[in-house]
Amino acid sequence: MLRFVVRRLLQMVGVLLVLSLLVFVWLRSLPGGPVSALLGERQTEARREALERALGLDQPLPVQYVRFMQRAFQGDFGVSTQVLPGEDALDIFLSRLPATLELSFFALVIAIALGIPLGYLAARRKGTALDTTSVIFSLVGVAVPVFFTAFLLKYFFAVEWNLLPVSGRQSIGLDATRVTGLFVLDGILTREWDAAWDALKHLVLPSLALATIPFAVVFRITRASVLDVLDEDYVRTAEAKGLTAKVIRGRHVLRNAMLPVVTTVGLQVGALLSGAVLTETVFSWRGVGQALAEGFLQKDYPVLQVLIMAAAAIYVLVNLLVDITYALIDPRIRTR
Amino acid sequence: MSPKRTVASLTAALVAAATLASCAESDRDEGSGGGGDDGTFVFGAAGAPEMFDPFYATDGETFRITRQMFEGLIGIEPGTAEVVPELATEWTPNDDGTEWTFALRDDVTFHDGEPFNADAVCYNFERMFDQNEAGQTAGEYWGYVMGAFSNDAENSLYQGCEATDEFEAVISISGPTSGFPTMLSLASLAMQSPTAMEEGDANGIAAEGEGFSFPAYADNPVGTGPFAFGEYDEANGSITLERYDDYYGEQAGVSELVFRVIPDESTRRQELEAGSINGYDFPNPVDWAGLTDDGNTVEIRDAFNILYLGLNPEANPKLKDLKVRQAIYHALNREQLVQTQLPEGAAVATQFMPDTVSGYNTELEPYAYDPDEAKRLLAEAGAEGMTLNFAYPTEVSRPYMPDPQKIYEALRTDLEAVGINVKVSTAAWNGGYLDNVSGEPGKYDAYILGWTGDYDSAYNFIGTFFGNLKDNDFATDVMPWGKQLADDLKAADAVVDEDERGAAFEEINRQIMEEYLPGLPISHSPPALVVGPGVDGLVPSPLTAEEFDTVTVGGE
Question: Which A residues in the span 83-142 are in contact with B, Cβ-Cβ below 8 Å?
């Protein structure tokens, strides 16, 4: 297992190196750039050239890339030009990460907590009203754009019924103590229960909006997988052996049906990261996704480079974790 | 996982959590809790501030915040674009307009308790003038209005500052210009505490990689305004300013001023409807009526901008013919465009500046919408069926063009109606559009663009467009009158007497519209801002330079 993990980690370094080159070249091959974003209508040829010179953007691409890598190997990924000018791009990622982790975690919890039981129940009661309703509900989750779901959630729960906040991570003037940057956890750790409760209330709507697609996917995969397993010979054998329904469901059906579900959940982490770009923007959630959206709009190269590569690293790491979990669920994989 | 290992893992997790919890303690200040005596005004901002040192800032979201903390020698009369005394009580030029004596207020202190006086004024000007290479690039507004920094002193408008008395400073400039001293009302050129700048190494900006790293001072600025810096909660996207109790003028109406960063416009509206913010800027014009119906107040500013159709005769030589340019102008149904695509209060432009700017020519009439005349002129010029590479920007909304694509479609339809073949070009605002417009040579024959004035100066509008012969978006250097126009603009700008200067600019405006027509002014659009119920005292500014110290927040 250790060798497997080490090999995968080494592969990850290779992936990131190649990606760094691709992202670097890709960003700079897009028309426009940070100079336009900085100068706006005030842009003239002379001003643009002066600013490009000052930022080193007038150098040939290979020179820029070598300089970037030289600095990157020393842990210096450059400073933001627009998202938070002057701030270290890596620091921006690290300071925004807790917000995205908190949001993604709650969204994933919602997706799993609803998706797996509902998928299982829908499969067990195939063709019933519960099954049909759940399938339609999951289809709507995939089909409706996140911004529209978000708009409706905000409109009803925040504006009309005033039950939850519209956007943001914490109410103004709360003076909450920050420890980890995960506001709910911080409130619990510092026993500032009002702050934890306030942060939790702020989390509900964005988590729900972000969870819609992963929920739908998890639900449908669980349902399909359970249906497949229910048809397997070993389930029939177990029933013939006279095992109790509880043992059959727990040990034979659910455990075997979980393999594709776990893979799917892993893949959904990537989907969550991309979904976070939109969700964080419409909920004013100061996370990585919002920084990414802002970075793209303002062509903030250092921030974009760090965020894209970090997102890739997280994605690869999560998939590694999925593979390890896979091996734990299915002992045959460990021996291969 | 065996039960034994599960128990071990759980125990380890619990121990870790308990350890973390014991390390984490509340650092709440029991006495605080926000709000204050006179309440909090929460404003929804579309973007986060770049930093808090206005000298290096370039964007409106930053200036909106710094304007509440800092003041200039010269201020702006609320609700107008007219300059009024602020930290200087009066200013007088010498005969040739190269030395300006500023009498200063004697009752002002910075937020750090340091006195404001002539030495502080000169320290500020020398600080702005004396920038390292990175600072010269980042100090964009100084470069824009003063032309150069200390390393190129002879090309700088600013020449020096002398404290002739404790409360009297003399600023020397290289020659008279309409922009001085009006430019001292710019948020970028505000007065800051010399002591705080010294301690925070305010000029310690450095180029780092592809950006600039800013000194500590940029995070903790000190001015003289009615509000002092409180905190920037970056993780939650909020900036808190606190009322400065020792302010020399009338105390601010609220104890706390909070800016919440809410990038999405529909979310800002929902926040206002939910009552969690008290106002926001640039509500979508289609929402104005609905917002008013819901009990909010939509404050419409006077327009201080211009939307124009830029023409580039270098990219399309047919545009060198005045008749072709006039034909295009006659083809455009601007009245309809203003009524259908622009917000309430928008007006058809007769020249390249709004009527609030000194030097506006009141005698100019708008070019009539006359497709037949357009066709006749095109025929006369032998340009029937000409093709125009006409561009608009995406991913942008500006006060003068809320929806560029819709404006473009309206103009395109008009052009095609008189037989002009339009080749559609488009690019993202920061994704090549501005590069293509301002590049040498520019890539588009025609493009839509605009400008919001920085201060009340004709040169700030038409000088920006046509004053730099070699580097302007209209390629006037290929036109026989281009140099004359640039020279005339500079000459008018240097006239010391205000009335004479105004008359000179009026004449240039006439020439631009009747003889040159380098581009086609389309319209002026008034941007709005909206405040919720219970908010009083906000005076909308044509320069989008609202000061929030007059705002009060009543009951729910």
Answer: 83-86, 95, 98-99
